[in-house]
Design goal:
By secondary structure, this protein is an all-alpha fold. It folds into two domains: 15-180, no CATH class; 186-469, no CATH class. It is 74% helix and 0% strand. It has 18 helices and no strands.
């Protein structure tokens, strides 16, 4: 993993950028497509055919949908849309959920059907949703048909966000696929954003992740406060890991002339779970809202139907994350909270002092991470018991005192970095001091954290990437 990261940063990416900006503009999609396929094959050579098949499938279905829409044959257009959706979901379902279904069937009926033992293709949950967004929006008349297979393939395989999002809907980059304008300003902004994302991942997520890794594996004597420190560490790890990758993807997109939408907006500052899900993994939430919640009726058919729709969407959101009862329970957990907020609690949270509503949100979010973080519900329930002192667990011990004193500075940095405080401070400094001084200071800071990130990346043996498994 370390070698791969260094190879990507110092060999693959510079080579792609040099070739990309040297060739005439009309060949740049070819360069992006080829480099994206190489990038994917580098990590997943066995399953590259699935992504290629999905690309060709939705390109073909899109052509047929457009043709039949033009002929006013909407039944046939809908049929081709259903072909796209059913085949895409069947592929996703087979590779992601077949063993889960078989193992539960075996447990329920005491049978012994052999498992497929399939390895989940990297990024399949992301690129499947992306390709479906194209055919659905084309059927709805919200986008124009893409007649160039190379251009469509570039959209599907685009390596900056291919393996872990954000989920880029076709309509977001429709004009940029064939008519984007690269510029020095976009390249500069992209590099800055990429470095910030890299620092989030390597300096923040990885280091706090070590704390969670040791606590969750029982490397310290358990206590109530150690358990809370552990789940707080996981909350910081998953945020800086995933938002860091999203920043890197957005930054790389800018370098190549694409403007991807934001995927995070300081979610831990939320005053409700409703607000949290407007700020966390925005691309996933907007996808389910646009293509599941609204088609089910959204909030247009009365409160009962709206609550039903919320619960359906969140059960699906949970299952999207993985083939495990943990994820289904995690999704239903949030669905129930969102339903309660919709019924009455959201208005209450808006009226009470912000400190109380934020504590409410953080508490429920941390409980959700307990469900999310483990491989089985049994493990989650055991850890949940530790949070609340089950079986007279000690409130604190010497291991907690050691952990808190040795990580207090990092925890403060993580807390501040997860809020908009640095952004506000930077804006005020820009107004107060000479722009040239600010520009120079910003570049020095970015250079320092880039060098520090590379140093850590070379030295660290612990470099997980949480969202690869989805």
């Amino acid at each position: 993993m370390v070698f791969s990261s260094i190879f990507f940063l110092f060999y693959f990416l510079p080579f792609v950028l040099i070739v990309y900006f040297i060739v005439p503009r009309k060949f740049r999609n070819y360069i992006l497509l080829i480099s994206s396929l190489i990038f994917y094959a580098w990590g997943e050579p066995k399953y590259i055919w699935i992504m290629l098949f999905s690309t060709f499938l939705d390109y073909t279905c899109g052509k047929r949908i457009h043709y039949n829409n033009e002929k006013k044959n909407f039944k046939k257009a809908k049929l081709w849309l259903l072909v796209s959706i059913l085949i895409n979901l069947s592929l996703l379902g087979f590779f992601k959920y077949s063993d889960f279904i078989i193992s539960n069937f075996n447990n329920a009926l005491n049978t012994n059907i052999p498992l497929f033992n399939l390895i989940l293709p990297i990024g399949i949950s992301f690129y499947t949703f992306q390709t479906m967004s194209y055919t659905i929006d084309l059927y709805r008349g919200k986008v124009d048909v893409q007649n160039n297979l190379i251009s469509f393939g570039t959209y599907v395989t685009l390596f900056p966000q291919l393996i872990a999002g954000p989920i880029v809907r076709y309509k977001t980059v429709e004009k940029e696929i064939d008519n984007r304008i690269e510029s020095f300003h976009l390249v500069s902004e992209g590099i800055k954003r990429f470095i910030i994302g890299l620092a989030k991942k390597v300096l923040l997520a990885n280091n706090i992740g070590l704390v969670w890794n040791n606590i969750s594996k029982g490397n310290y004597e358990s206590s109530v406060l150690i358990s809370w420190l552990g789940i707080i560490a996981f909350g910081f790890q998953i945020y800086f890991d995933f938002s860091g990758y999203s920043d890197m993807a957005i930054g790389l997109g800018k370098i190549f002339g694409f403007n991807f939408l934001e995927n995070f907006n300081y979610p831990y500052m939320s005053r409700s779970i409703t607000e949290f899900w407007r700020r966390w993994h925005i691309s996933l939430g907007s996808w389910f809202k646009e293509y599941v919640y609204i088609p089910l009726g959204g909030n247009k058919r009365g409160l009962k139907v709206q609550i039903r729709n919320i619960l359906i969407v969140w059960a699906l959101t949970g299952i999207w994350h993985g083939a495990s009862w943990n994820f289904l329970v995690w999704g239903i957990y949030f669905g129930l909270i969102l339903a309660i907020e919709k019924l009455f609690l959201y208005d209450v949270l808006e009226k009470i002092p912000g400190i109380f509503s934020r504590l409410y949100s953080i508490f429920l979010i941390l409980i959700s991470w307990v469900i999310f973080a483990f491989d089985s519900l049994e493990q989650s329930f055991i850890f949940m018991g530790q949070l609340f002192g089950k079986e007279s667990l000690a409130f604190y011990n010497s291991d907690f005192l050691y952990l808190i004193t040795s990580n207090i500075i990092m925890l403060v940095v993580l807390f501040v970095a997860s809020t908009d405080i640095p952004k506000k401070i930077w804006k005020s400094l820009k107004k107060k001091y000479n722009p040239n001084l600010i520009y120079m200071s910003e570049n020095i800071f970015l250079l320092l954290i880039f060098i520090l990130s590379i140093s850590y990346l070379v030295d660290q043996s612990y470099n997980p990437f949480l969202y690869f498994r989805f």
